[in-house]
Specification:
The chain has 97 residues and is mainly alpha-helical. It has 1 helix and 3 strands. The structure holds zinc ion. Residues 7, 9-10, 12, 29, 31-32, 34 line the site of zinc ion.
Length: 97
């Protein structure tokens, strides 16, 4: 018995006092006699959707890291290119003076 399956009438949550009916859809509380449908367990489809959502989040993080790495790489290239740009500027500076 999972959390959320406790008796809505009296709040009994001891597994020993909550008995599943033969059809497996209803639970009878032995404490107060209330019969109810417990919170449905996650179906396989729900679990799959949950895993998919987790994977989508992981993918988003991975993409963000990849983009950041790309930006860092571009920044490195720009840093390397800077001296050359300085030379060009210096040459022009000399040319005009
Ligand atoms: Zn009860």
């Amino acid at each position: 018995m999972c959390d959320g399956d406790e008796c809505p009438e009296c709040g009994e949550s001891a597994v020993d006092n909550l008995v599943w009916d033969d059809d497996g859809e209803l639970v009878t509380c032995q404490f107060c006699g209330y019969t109810y449908t417990p919170a449905p367990l996650l179906s396989d489809a729900d679990l799959a959707a949950e895993r998919e959502a987790e994977r989508a989040t992981d993918d988003a993080v991975e993409r963000a890291l990849a983009i950041k790495a790309e930006i860092d790489a571009e920044a490195d290239e720009q840093t390397k290119a800077d001296p050359r740009l300085d030379n060009v500027v210096n040459h022009r500076f000399c040319y005009w003076h």
